Amino acid sequence: MELHHLAQHLSARLRAYFVTGPLREQIIDAAVRLAARAGYTNVGTFEFLVDLSGRLDMQPFFFIEANARLQVEHTVTEAVTGIDLVQAQIRLARGATLREIGLEKPVAPRGYAIQARVNMETIAEGGSVQPSSGALTVYEAPSGPGVRTDGFGYAGYRTSSAFDSLLAKVIAHSPSPDFAQCAMRASRALREFRLEGVATNMGSCAIFWRIRISCLETFIRAGWMSISRNLCQSAISGTASSMRPAMPDTRGRG
Fold it and tell me: By three-state DSSP, how is residue 16 classified?
């Protein structure tokens, strides 16, 4: 299984539980300064890579890129903050101020959120991605408390390989400070998604998050990490930050 493809293109999560309060504030401050320097005043995405090696001779984080638009994973930010980012960017573009849309103060996130992308593709044992297409015979998206599905489909809907393979985004949110609760909700929602007629990556996504739950529990029991409950900021100066944390380096730790 190609974890790079699975982790970067098929799932996203918020918050980054490996990022401590002080480091989170530094990253947010860097994003705000970048936006101010560029004169950017609407919703956007600033991406950073966090170094988890702990080496004193390394910078704690590095800037990757900035996008003057919402990313496909903006739904996780909406879930933990309760902010409709699409509405916010439209109102800002029409001249509204942060005070007028109620975002003049930092927003405290609630728990964690995970987005899993349901694509018409499968991942072979060697890691290659195989696209698929066809007519849907069953399309029953998951729902319930803490579960949101953004997608389109119905029985009889014929897909086309001429367009993006994304069919739906399944977003799971848990207000609990325990990230495993959110991961379990995401895994369960994916297993409840009835989608037939085309080959998809749902099985891989569900397995991926079950593995993450197991790894997370192992890390906590071994005391290799601490989960930060510090508040982060979003929608500062009209910006929203999005981070993709990596798994910790466990080499040489027994």
Answer: coil
Phi/psi for 31 (5° steps) reads -65, -40
- Are 107 and 14 in contact by the 8 Å Cβ rule? The answer is no
40-85 pLDDT, tens digit per residue, is 989 999 999 988 777 777 788 999 999 998 888 899 999 999 999 9
Element housing 4 (H / E): helix 3-9
Q: Inter-axis angle of helices 202-222 and 179-192, to 10 degrees?
A: 160
In terms of pTM, does the model score above 0.70?
A: yes
> What CA–CA distance (Å, rounded) separates 139 from 148?
15
* C-alpha dihedral sign at 60, 66, 69, 73: negative
Give the domains, in start order, of the chain with CATH numbers. 3-222 (3.30.470.20)
Divide the 254 residues of the chain into consecutive groups of 10 and give the mean pLDDT of each group: 41 70 89 93 90 78 91 90 94 93 88 90 79 93 95 93 88 91 89 92 65 45 31 30 34 38
> Given 69, 158, 194, 229, which residue is catalytic?
69
User: Which ranges of 122-178 does DSSP label H, i.e. alpha helix?
Assistant: none
Known catalytic residue: 69? yes
Looking only at the bridges linking them, the beta strands covering 61-67 and 112-119 are unpaired
Across 124-144, b (16+ Cβ under 10 Å) vs e yields eeeeebeebbeebeebebbee
Q: What is the pLDDT of residue 18?
A: 72
Q: Amino acid identity of 116?
A: A
The span from the CA of 32 to the CA of 236, in Å, is: 7
